[in-house]
Amino acid sequence: MDFRVTILGSGAASPSRGRNQTSQVVTSGNNCFLVDCGEAAQIQLKKYKIKLSRIDHIFISHLHGDHYLGLMGLISTMHLARRERLLTIFGPRGLDEIITVQLKHSHLKLHYPIKFVSTSQDGKRLLLDDKYLNIYSFPLKHRIPCTGFSFEEKPRMRNLIKEKIQSNKLGVDAILSLRNGLDYVNDEGNVTYRVEEYTYPPSLPRKYAFCSDTLYDEDIIPYIRDSSLLYHEATFMNRDEIRAAETCHSTAAQAATIARSAGAKQLLLGHYSSRYVDLYPLLEEAKAIFEPSILSEEGATYWME
Amino acid sequence: MDFRVTILGSGAASPSRGRNQTSQVVTSGNNCFLVDCGEAAQIQLKKYKIKLSRIDHIFISHLHGDHYLGLMGLISTMHLARRERLLTIFGPRGLDEIITVQLKHSHLKLHYPIKFVSTSQDGKRLLLDDKYLNIYSFPLKHRIPCTGFSFEEKPRMRNLIKEKIQSNKLGVDAILSLRNGLDYVNDEGNVTYRVEEYTYPPSLPRKYAFCSDTLYDEDIIPYIRDSSLLYHEATFMNRDEIRAAETCHSTAAQAATIARSAGAKQLLLGHYSSRYVDLYPLLEEAKAIFEPSILSEEGATYWME
Questions:
Q1: Domain positions in chain A
Q2: What does the pLDDT profile of chain A (305 residues) look like in tens digits?
C-alpha cells in the first residue's frame, strides 16, 4: 500500500530563499492528509498537482502563522470548487475561532461542512481511525501549545502462499480466515488449513512521525519510536544552539540524536532558518550523529519503507 | 516625482494559472503604499525586491480572502525583521478583529505598534495626508462592504524659468514665493517679481484610482474622474456578463465604459477569472470601448503620466 509524504514547504518563520512555510501531504492509498498549512500551501499544492478534492483531513500542529496561515485560502478555494464533502480539521483550540471570525467578516457561507477537532497536550491521542492508518497527536514543547502527529499503519493481513492456495482450491472464507491469522475450521469443527502452512507473516506496519516545532525533548521518544520515517524540525546548526534553545527550536544534530534514540529508520530534516543558504553543512551535522538523515526538499516525495 | 504602481497579483478568487491574488504597491517618492494583500503577497514582494521596511501604510479594500489573506504573514515577517515603526492599516471594520484574534492565539507580542483605521462606505474620505499625495477611500458596490482608493497628487509648485532667475539673482524668499504662485513683494511693499514672468505652470496633479471588486456602477465616476491611471477590476468577458452581475463583478468592457465616462487617461485591467487562459480577447473587449486599456501583469510597473 502506497504510504508517502510530499513536502510543500521546508522553511521556517518567514518565506525566503525560495523556501515556503511548513506544509506536507501524507498519502495513504487514495487518501491525502494535509499536515500543517503555511501561507501559500494551496499554491504549492497546485504546483505539485495534488488535488484539493483528495484532502478530507487537515492537521495543524500549532498556531504560529507559518504553520496555519494558508488554511483560510484553502477553505475558500474548496468552497469555490463547490466542495460538498465534510472537511475535518484537527488543531489547537483557538483555530476554530480564527476560522469562524474570518468566515463571519467575509460573509462566507460554505457549501460544505467543517468539523473542528481540538488537539490536546495530554499524551498520545487517537485522532483518526482511517482505512489503513491510525493517526495520533502527541505533545511537543514549543513556545505555544503544539503537537506532533504520527501516522501508524494498521497491522497488515498475512500474505498467502499462492501455490498452496491454488493447488488446494481454497474458498473465500478460508482465505479470509488465514489472511487474518486464524486457522480455518470447517463446519464439522476440524482445523482444515493451518495459518503457518498457507501464509507467511506481513511486513511490519510502517509509521511516519511529524515533529513540527519543538525544542530538544527526549520525552517525545515513546511517541515516535520505531518510525519508518521521522520528520523532525532542524531550524538551526550547532553554532546557533543557544538561539535554538531560546526560541524553543532544535538543531539538526539534536534532531539526529532524537532519531537515533527513537530507533527511526530515516530522519527527514526541515524548517530551516533563512540564515542558512547552503543546507549541506546542516545535513552533515545530522549525519555525524545519525547517518540516514536526509534534507526535505520542496516538491519531493519520501516513501515509508 | 516618482509616482507608479507595481502589480503583485492579477488574479481573482483563488490563485491559479500562475496568477496571484490582488495586491499592488503604489510608490510615491520614497514611500510605498500596499494596496490589498492577497495570500502570498509577502512572497511576491520579495520576488520583486520591494522592501517591507518601506511600507508604513496598508490599504485593504474588503474582507474577501483574496484581498487580505496575506496580511497576517506580512505583519509577522515585519515583527521577525524587528520592525519598530508604526504600521497603519486602513480597512473595513472587522479586519482589526481578524488581526487581534490571530495575534492572541499565536501569543505574538509585536515589536511595533499597529494603528487600525476603519474605512467607511459613506462617500469620499481622506485617509492620509502624505508628503506628496492625499489618499482617499470611496465606496464600491460589492457583495460585502468594499471601498476603492484614490491616490491624488497634491498641487505641485510652479516651475522656475531658470534663465530669468539667474540673470536677476533672485533670493530664496522670492523663489519660494514665486514657486507657490505668489508675486514677490519686497519689504517696501512693492511687487518686485511677477509669477507669470518668472515661472510657468506646473503639470496637472496626477491621480491613481484603484477599484478592486465592484459591479458596473456609474456612481463611482465622480471619485475616479480624470485619473491618470485607473485600475478597475475586469473579472469577466462579455460572454460571462450575467455571471459578472450575479457575483457583483465587472466585465472588461464595463471597466472600459467606466474609464471612458470618467475621462481616465489609461485603464489598467486585472482580477482576471481563472476561467480565462489567454487574456488578449478580454483586453480586446476593453479596447473596443476605451483604446488606452492595458492588461496588468505581475511584476510590471506602471507610471502615472
A1: 3-156+203-303, 159-200
A2: 799 999 999 999 888 888 999 999 999 998 999 999 999 999 999 999 999 999 999 999 999 999 999 999 999 999 999 999 999 999 999 999 999 999 999 999 999 999 999 999 999 999 999 989 999 999 999 999 999 999 999 998 899 999 988 888 888 999 999 999 999 988 888 888 999 999 999 988 999 999 999 999 999 999 999 999 999 999 999 999 999 999 999 999 999 999 999 999 999 999 999 999 999 999 999 999 999 999 999 999 999 98
Q: What is the DSSP string of chain A?
A: --EEEEEEE-B-SS-BTTBPBSEEEEEETTEEEEEEE-TTHHHHHHHTT--GGGEEEEE----SHHHHTTHHHHHHHHHHTT--S-EEEEE-TTHHHHHHHHHHHTT---SS-EEEEE--SSS-EEEEE-SSEEEEEEEE-SSS-EEEEEEEEPPPPPEE-HHHHHHHT--HHHHHHHHTT--EE-TTS-EEE-HHHHEEPPPPPPEEEEE-S--S-GGGHHHHTT-SEEEEE--B-GGGHHHHHHTT--BHHHHHHHHHHHT-SEEEEE-B-TT-S--HHHHHHHHTT-SSEEE--TT-EEE--
Catalytic site includes residue A66:
yes
Give B-chain residues touching A73 at CB under 8 angstroms.
Answer: 14-15, 39, 65-66, 69
Q: Pick from A63, A76, A107: which is nearest to B106 by CB?
A: A63
Are B97 and A76 within 8 A, CB to CB?
no
Quote ipTM for the complex: 0.87
Contacts of B143 in chain A (CB under 8 A): 107
Q: Do B77 and A144 touch (CB under 8 A)?
A: no
Are A76 and B65 within 8 A, CB to CB?
Answer: yes
Check CB contact of A17 with chain B, cutoff 8 Å: no
- In words, the CATH class of domain B3-156+203-303 is alpha beta
Q: Which pTM was predicted?
A: 0.90
